[in-house]
Amino acid sequence: MSEPVRVAMWSGPRNISTAMMRAWENRPDTVVVDEPLYAEYLVRTGLDHPGRDEVVAAQPTWLPEVVEGLLAPLPRGKGVHYAKHMAHHLDLEAEADWTDDFRNVLLVRDPAEVVASYVRSREACEPDDIGLLQEQWLLDRWDALGADVPVIDSADFLRDPEAHLRWLCDWLGIAFTDRMLSWPPGPRASDGVWAPYWYDAVLASTGFEPYRPRAVELSEHDAAVADACRPAYERLRERRVRI
């Protein structure tokens, strides 16, 4: 039996990461896991997020246990494991060697759009909250190791989801299926317990929405947060997959 393909998709919040997880879960050969580092992150940082106690109770809070679960054998008939990760959940001061056991992909979005969306759900936003600084750190780390890690910009992706998914499946060495382009609306058993706080749009979705430019108005503080993350975004975007 061939080894399973284990995909780690690293993103920031308020991106298309949950819709991307829907696309992969709609494959009959794939198991998905939703933000497996979330509880560990909340316990380590002490942050108070919506549904914090539910998240901490629902997931392992010790990193080795999280990683063990990500590497566990797959159910019969499943050959792909897809993990949706938030890059800001990763502890950059701890060992990140465990990430090398996965086919890593970075998913990015313009920081002004991310911040504008983020502050509609949260009162405050700082540069470390939106994942781009951590994604640049990860890319630099993997580059130093000579790892092949693609970067996907969500704006490009939404202009042609099929072409990007075909490219990604080819890079992973698995067959593309058009089941990845649409899915039934509603919740999934695999959704994190935080879904009621964050997933309204995805729960109503049946596919990827076409890209449209966003009108962004930010406060002085929030504009400074976006500006602080822009160099990281531009570096990541330079490396994006071009279809």
Write the layout of secondary structure elements.
Layout: E1 5-11, H1 17-25, E2 30-34, H2 38-45, H3 52-58, H4 63-70, E3 80-86, E4 103-108, H5 111-118, H6 132-144, E5 151-153, H7 154-159, H8 161-172, H9 195-198, H10 200-204, H11 220-238
Parallel strand pairs: 1-3, 1-4, 2-3, 4-5
Describe this structure in words.
By secondary structure, this protein is of the alpha/beta class. It has helices at residues 17-25, 38-45, 52-58, 63-70, 111-118, 132-144, 154-159, 161-172, 195-198, 200-204, 220-238; strands at residues 5-11, 30-34, 80-86, 103-108, 151-153. It has one domain: P-loop containing nucleotide triphosphate hydrolases (Rossmann fold, 3-Layer(aba) Sandwich). It has eleven helices and five strands, in the order βαβαααββααβααααα. The longest helix has 19 residues, at 220-238. GO terms for molecular function: transferase activity. Keywords: Transferase. It holds the Pfam family Sulfotransfer_5. InterPro entries: Class-IV_PLP-Dep_Aminotrnsfr (IPR050571), P-loop_NTPase (IPR027417).
